[in-house]
Design brief:
It is a multi-pass membrane protein. By secondary structure, this protein is mainly α. The chain contains seven helices and no strands.
Length: about 260
């Protein structure tokens, strides 16, 4: 998206409006660059894993090795380590979540795309709602409806502290957990995109400055864009890992016998 915003002159700084690409055609507001990127991310993940496991080998090919390594990392390093042995049944969901978010985030530094769908709050919110629904379902299934409400909100504290603790725990379990899960991913990807916009467009603004002493600073601004692009790649993977790890942590808390 940065490439589409490079102008001969930049009379105004980038704003929140730059994060909303226009609709594609007259089909409706649902079809935009973001929705196409979501479909593309899903297709990339599905096709890659299907092709990698189409003809599995005892000595894995590079594609099979990478697919097995990613799944094994999530299965052993997240599902099993955080949730325990019971967490193995959630490994497919957690691995799918991790790989999908990584691919969607990496779009932020792909030339010609240069924006992640996760920089729009709607998409992290949907992923957070999926996790929210999953851990509520597991909690009600394991503890029963009233049992889970008690499990999620009642702490092992003296009775006179419960009126203070109950609303805090209820707010955390049923509102703050899914909200912060979505906001953390959104805020990091949004901030990264805006930083790339600032330094890219700032370079053109400096290049068009009247003073010959200011023009060379544009090179420094573009150099920062390159450095931030590599940093954004690290953030893309890290945020996918954090989202997946927190999902596993919430599931572990739901499935625990005690609060």
């Amino acid at each position: 998206m940065v490439s589409g915003l490079i102008l001969a002159e930049v009379p105004f700084p980038p704003s929140v409006e730059d994060i909303f690409p226009p609709n594609i055609g007259d089909i409706g507001p649902w079809l935009s660059k973001f929705t196409l990127l979501i479909f593309l991310a899903v297709a990339i993940v599905l096709v890659y894993f299907l092709v990698s496991y189409r003809n599995p080998q005892i000595v894995p090919t590079k594609k099979q090795w990478l697919a097995e390594s990613v799944y094994g990392f999530v299965r052993e390093g997240v599902a099993k380590d955080v949730i325990g042995h019971e967490g193995l049944r959630f490994a497919p969901y957690l691995a799918s979540l991790f790989t999908f978010i990584v691919v969607a985030n990496v779009f932020a530094i792909v030339p010609g795309i240069q924006i992640s769908p996760m920089s729009h709050i709607a998409f992290p919110a949907v992923l957070a709602l999926c996790t929210y629904g999953l851990y509520l379902f597991q909690g009600f299934k394991k503890h029963g409806f009233l049992g889970y409400l008690k499990h999620a909100t009642v702490l092992p504290a003296p009775w006179f502290m419960q009126p203070l603790l109950l609303p805090i725990e209820a707010l955390q379990a049923f509102i703050l957990q899914p909200a912060t899960l979505a906001l953390r991913l959104f805020a990091n990807m949004f901030a990264g995109h805006m930083l790339l916009l600032v330094f890219t467009l700032g370079g053109f603004a400096l290049l068009n400055a009247e003073s010959i002493f200011i023009k060379p600073i544009s090179v420094l601004s573009w150099g920062m864009t390159i450095l931030l692009t590599f940093f954004e790649l690290l953030v893309a993977a890290l945020q996918a890992y954090v989202f997946t790890l927190l999902t596993a942590n919430y599931l572990a808390g739901t499935l625990a016998e005690e609060h």
